[in-house]
Design a protein that fits this description.
Belongs to the SEC23/SEC24 family. SEC24 subfamily. Pfam families: Gelsolin, Sec23_BS, Sec23_helical, Sec23_trunk, zf-Sec23_Sec24. The structure is a single chain. It is built from 25 helices and 30 strands. Helix content is about 20%, strand content about 15%. Helix 17 crosses helix 25. The strands form 7 sheets. Strands 6, 8, 12, 20, 22, 24 and 25 form a 7-stranded mixed sheet that branches. A 7-stranded mixed sheet has the order 16-15-14-13-17-18-19. It has a 4-stranded antiparallel sheet with strand order 5-7-23-21, covered by helices on one side. The N terminus is likely disordered.
Length: about 1200
């Protein structure tokens, strides 16, 4: 329940002070809330020593471009010389090939045992100058007591650098069989693996099963790519995930290594030359050759043991034995749980560095299979460690069962991940967020917080990609971070937040700036004793109307400031006068018209019976406006097949009347009185109509349907009734009947992922675009509910919804008994939410910047106004802002969003959102105040708009290049000097590589021939209209464990990283992204769980075809069903629960959504993509 609103202008009522400075007792922060400092940087104070964020990738291991010879006694793994080819085993991922001459530093005949630097690092003495302070020691990194770096205006970043520090003496001497060193007390041991990676069957070729389309299910992945799913990108596009549905044609052919026998399953390895100008890679763990190495200082030389490498200082320390804590510089063993190390800090206070010392060597490694014998692809033992997630290491050795050691690779647990970032932000920024100053960076979208509006619009309504704006366009171009806003003007408030108050000035109307027409807001400054005010957006001064005049106090503030919401709040509403209404007349309450396809398909699937049976329940949920106790909205009904049928449901009639319009060329409205009625007054007539419709059309054999004339009929009905509203259209087949809007079947999914895909993703005619424009100009929004069993051309018919601010729902292979509940829940959520009808939105900015590009579901007839027939809390609009002049560094950047709309009670209102940002002259200030979730959603919406004009490869290349440019700019201008082999990420953008990779894998961008054309179009429409909370879990799905839930709680358990490596054989998990929900059941799941939740003894007995959980009275059953229901409640759409048993055919569909793993279509894993991003950044530097 929202608290009651005061009446602002009733003199008898005591005035409430809005946004008044809090009393001393209110100044304390909420429990667990970190204090917010004034520079908008929540995680650290500006005085904190400057830190940089470094990662070094596996591909850079053992490389030196300009480094000096190693320190005395330093040993390195053997390297390939640059002369005649030596034997090389199949290697793990090294990144895409790069051609080019060797560097000047690379000796032409480097000997194999010549020691070379592993890092591009300067000598140790120089390293100490740029290393992070002791407080930012990364997980597993020995504390080398580096001197602290001087404080600077530099954003903190995270540093995982295991190789830049000299090894501890004990590490250098430790050999196999010795106990591990005691853990360093100053290490960050906060990461412990959630579980042991489970072996996956047939990992060399995961997609063994034929894929079958499941009713209502996401399509199975393309099977052409299965044989080569672990191939890296085509050479024509270095480092990019290949376009889908290209089979093997663009993959690297398996290459035999010089002097090596062919290796089985070689398609899973990456064979390529090293990067330009870098010495060759050190051999991987199963390299058979041994090289004698110089002894350690003061020690006799160690004899090389067959099949083993010596543990040289730069090869990383030995993995710990089971049950032992990890050594310094090493992550814990999988499956082991360690307490946090003393003195450890959350990684958000570290510098994030990756370097290739995070790859491990495998002692006890046997050579690959002898020539002439295929190398085995499976290891004995319960666990197998893959070189990359989901990738089987070719030629894996066989050895007796012993404590398994991880192969050398980048450790995914050491890389930044969303779960950790969200958890830390919840701890530091949960509680109350006071929006009281310019440039304040809000909590993450996923953080639970309460906004205290003190003159700035809350982040639920409007977010910026940056809260410190560069003063000129050159800095913007250099940084490459987009300056954009994501606006959800009708976003829902949470408990303890006030809804925006409504201010009524009567006939006077809203007070506005005389020049730029901005509305009265906290950004206006009153001058001349209160007789005039200056607008901070355009600097013009305006006379204050006599009715609005008020004296100023000694500080220059109006005496009544805290009694007027528009002077102290960031978000509020004005009641509009007739000047803001169509034809200068106040509007009527809006209406909802149900437009139902009654052709053979919808009757046979049970849809018509279901809708008519549930209509009484649906119309009970129409929205009530603020201050009203019942809904004022009207309803109407239209059915259609190859003709259109209107119904008179006037309350005075004994039976409803039906009128048929057969002339589809000139659609008109055959009745005026009785079509739109109050659902309560006409409930008896509506019930009679719902009984009759299934009987009238129950025996229909009509399969050829129309669509455009039916939508036009609804539009004409609203026009004739002189009201606005929306149509809910329930449609099933491609409109092929002879009528306006007839479409051809152009289904050719082979074009998806190719340069010609835009020919099937753009409309095949302009009829539906024109209809959409007609709808928006009459205030009519169209929501499409599609029930297709075959191609329906959403790319064309969906334009009506896109242009009118509508939404598209899709139920492929709909069956009323299976999907009926989901549909009815979606309709009820749709009709019950608060909607702004017949809207016009404009964004005003202060001088120096201006909005230029707009992305979302709306129509624009000019360059400034967005016409939106309906917008609701689940939709957002992305707006890009660009410089048109230099900004004064001492002034703020002001933004005001005004949405003029008709409420669901028929009142014309203006909703005003105000936001101010700081201007900055330093790039470090910009990178300290970025909002990554907002940036990613903006790039997604912008990319999908451009996708209809450019090829998919251009769009994906552009995303990767932009991300590389952002990170290269930070590295060059903001980070401390360090080795080129380190990948440095700004703190607030450390997830940028992961999220960009998620975008590239998303169906909206990468759907190939493994999905249908309609699925691809549906994903595009969904992303274009979605808001920020939905986008976070859509691009990075939530993976929620169920097998270890706390039965005494009722909240949703904390999610884990979205990778198959975290899924245990004896676990149960929910994977959901807002559209699909899977429940994955491991084959080792305990009988207690299956009995309590499913009522059967084992996983094999569970009926995976059921789409809901059985209702059992056990505590665990109630808890699991409660989690599912809670997830459904938080979403805008009801998701079908799909049960997936481990190793079933459907598991490949689920694995498509495990975005950190290598894609079933061959797209790069997180580890692979991070390596590729590092290569792109180094190329820019």
């Amino acid at each position: 329940m929202n608290p009651p609103q005061p009446n602002f202008y009733n003199p008898q009522q005591q005035q409430q002070n809005w946004g008044a400075p809090p009393m001393p007792s209110q100044m304390t922060s909420a429990p667990g809330q970190a204090p917010l400092n004034v520079n908008g940087n929540q995680n650290y104070q500006q005085q904190q020593p400057q830190q940089g964020t470094n990662f070094m990738t596996q591909q850079m291991a053992g490389m030196s471009l300009n480094g000096p010879p190693p320190a005395v006694g330093q040993q390195f793994p053997p390297t390939m010389n640059a002369g005649p080819p030596k034997q090389m085993p199949p290697m793990g991922f090294q990144g895409p090939p790069v051609s080019g001459p060797p560097s000047a530093n690379q000796a032409p005949n480097m000997q194999q045992n010549q020691p070379i630097g592993t890092n591009n690092a300067p000598p140790m003495a120089n390293q100490m100058k740029s290393a992070p302070p002791p407080s930012s020691v990364a997980q597993g990194m020995p504390n080398n007591n580096f001197p602290p770096t001087p404080a600077a205006s530099m954003p903190a970043s995270n540093n995982f650098n295991n190789n830049m520090a000299p090894s501890l003496p004990g590490q250098q001497q430790q050999q196999q069989g010795r106990p591990p060193m005691p853990s360093n007390p100053i290490t960050n041991g906060t990461h412990s693996p959630i579980g042991v990676p489970t072996p996956q069957p047939n990992q060399g070729s995961q997609n063994q099963f034929p894929q079958q389309a499941q009713p209502g299910m996401p399509p199975a992945m393309n099977q052409q790519n299965q044989g080569s799913q672990n191939q890296f990108p085509p050479q024509s596009q270095p480092g990019m995930p290949p376009a889908l549905n290209q089979g093997n044609q663009n993959q690297f052919p398996p290459q035999q290594q010089p002097g090596m026998p062919p290796v089985a399953n070689q398609q899973n390895s990456f064979n390529q030359p090293p990067l330009t100008g870098q010495p060759r890679m050190p051999p991987m763990p199963n390299q058979p050759q041994m090289v004698s190495q110089p002894p350690m200082p003061g020690q006799p030389p160690m004899a090389a043991q067959p099949g083993m490498y010596q543990n040289t200082p730069n090869s990383g320390p030995m993995p710990p034995m089971p049950g032992q804590p990890p050594m310094p510089g090493q992550p814990p063993m999988p499956g082991a749980q360690y307490p946090p190390m003393p003195g450890s800090q959350p990684p958000s206070f570290q510098q994030n560095t990756f370097n290739q010392a995070q790859m491990y060597q495998n002692p006890g490694q046997m050579p690959p299979a002898a020539p002439g014998f295929p190398a085995s692809n499976q290891r004995p033992g319960p666990m197998q460690y893959n070189t990359m997630p989901g990738q089987q290491y070719p030629g894996s050795p066989q050895y007796p069962q012993a404590p398994q050691q991880p192969q050398r690779r980048l450790d995914p647990d050491q890389m930044p991940n969303p779960i950790q970032v969200m958890s830390e932000n919840q701890k530091t920024n949960g509680g109350v967020f006071s929006a009281n100053q310019a440039g304040l960076v809000p909590p993450l979208v996923t953080t639970k917080f309460v906004t205290q509006d003190q003159g700035q619009s809350g982040p639920r309504y409007i977010r910026s990609t940056m809260y410190n704006v560069p003063v000129n366009s050159d800095m913007m171009k250099q940084a490459a971070v987009p300056f954009s806003l994501i606006i959800s003007p009708l976003a829902k408030t949470v408990e303890n937040e006030y809804p925006p108050p409504i201010v009524d000035f009567g006939e006077l109307g809203p007070i506005r700036c005389i020049r730029c027409k901005a509305y009265m807001c906290p950004f206006m400054q009153f001058i001349d004793a209160g007789r005039r005010f200056q607008c901070l957006l355009c600097k013009a001064t305006t006379e204050v109307p006599a009715e609005y005049f008020q004296h100023l106090d000694h500080t220059g503030q109006r005496v009544d400031k805290y009694e007027r919401p528009e002077l102290v709040l960031g978000t509020y509403e004005f009641v509009a006068t007739k000047d803001y209404c169509r034809n200068n007349t106040y509007p009527k309450p809006p209406a909802i018209i149900f437009v139902i396809d009654v052709s053979y398909n919808n009757v046979k699937s049970g849809l018509v019976h279901l809708l008519c049976g549930q209509m009484k329940e649906i119309v009970k949920n129409l929205p009530k406006d603020q201050g009203h106790d019942k809904s004022l909205m009207k309803v109407g009904f239209i059915t259609y097949n190859n003709t259109v049928h209107f119904y008179n449901i006037k309350s005075s009639l004994a039976q409803p009347q039906m009128m048929v319009v057969g002339d589809l060329q000139e659609m008109f409205m055959p009745l005026l009185d009785g079509f739109l009625c109050d659902p309560e007054e006409s409930s008896a007539v509506i019930d009679a109509l719902m009984d009759q419709i299934p009987k009238m059309f129950g025996d229909t054999r009509e399969t050829e349907t129309i669509l455009l004339p039916a939508i036009q009929a609804g539009l004409e009905a609203l026009k004739a009734s002189e009201t606005t509203g929306k149509l809910l259209v329930f449609h099933s087949t491609l409109p092929v009947a002879e009528a306006p809007g007839k479409l051809k079947n152009r289904d050719d999914r082979k074009l998806l992922g190719t340069e010609k895909e835009k020919t099937v993703l753009t409309p095949q005619c302009t009829s539906y675009n024109n209809l959409g424009q007609d709808c928006v100009q009459s205030g009519c929004s169209v929501d499409l509910f599609v029930f297709n069993n075959s191609y329906i051309d959403l790319a064309t018919i969906g334009q009506v919804s896109r242009l009118s601010g509508g939404e598209i729902y899709k139920y492929t292979y709909f069956q009323a008994d299976i999907d009926g509940h989901r549909l009815i829940q979606d309709i009820i959520k749709n009709v019950s939410r608060n909607v702004a009808f017949d809207g016009v939105m404009r964004v005003r900015t202060s001088t120096g910047v201006r909005p230029t590009d707009f992305y979302g579901h709306f129509f624009m007839s000019n360059t400034t106004d967005l016409e939106i027939a309906a917008i609701d809390p689940s939709k957002s609009i992305a707006i890009e802002i660009k410089h048109d002049d230099k900004l004064p560094p001492e002034e703020n950047v002001y933004i005001q969003v005004a949405l003029l709309y008709t409420s669901c009670s028929g009142q014309r209102r203006l909703r005003i959102l105000n936001l101010s940002l700081k201007a900055c002259t330093q790039l470090a200030d910009l990178f300290r105040s970025c909002d990554l979730d907002t940036t990613i959603l903006f790039l997604a919406k912008q990319g999908l708009f451009k996708l209809l004009e450019h090829t998919p490869r251009q769009i994906k290349d552009g995303l990767v290049q932009r991300a590389a440019q952002i990170l290269a700019c930070y590295r060059k201008n903001c980070a401390t000097p360090s080795s080129a082999g380190q990948l440095i990420l700004p703190e607030c953008m450390k997830l940028l590589p992961l999220y960009i990779n998620c975008l590239l894998k998303n169906d909206a961008f990468s759907g190939g021939s493994d999905i249908t054309l309609d699925d691809r179009s549906y994903a595009i429409y969904f992303v274009l209209s979605m808001d920020l909370p939905v986008s976070v879990s859509y691009f990075y799905p939530r993976l929620i464990p169920l097998h270890d839930v706390d039965l005494d709680r009722d909240d949703i358990p904390d999610p884990i990283r979205c990778t198959g490596e975290k899924m245990l054989d004896d676990g149960a998990y929910i994977l959901e992204n807002g559209i699909y929900m899977f429940m994955w059941l491991g084959l080792g799941l305990s009988p207690e769980f299956t009995q309590s939740v499913f009522g059967v003894q084992s996983v094999q007995q569970i009926d995976t075809d059921r789409n809901s959980l059985p209702v059992l009275e056990t505590k665990l059953s109630k808890r699991v069903r409660g989690i599912v229901n809670r997830i459904q409640q938080d979403k805008n759409r009801c998701m079908r629960v799909t049960l997936v048993r481990q190793r079933d055919k459907l598991e490949n569909v689920l694995r498509h959504f495990l975005v950190e793993d290598r894609g079933t279509d061959g797209s790069a894993s997180y580890v692979d993509f991070l390596c590729h991003m590092h290569k792109e950044i180094r190329a820019l530097l």
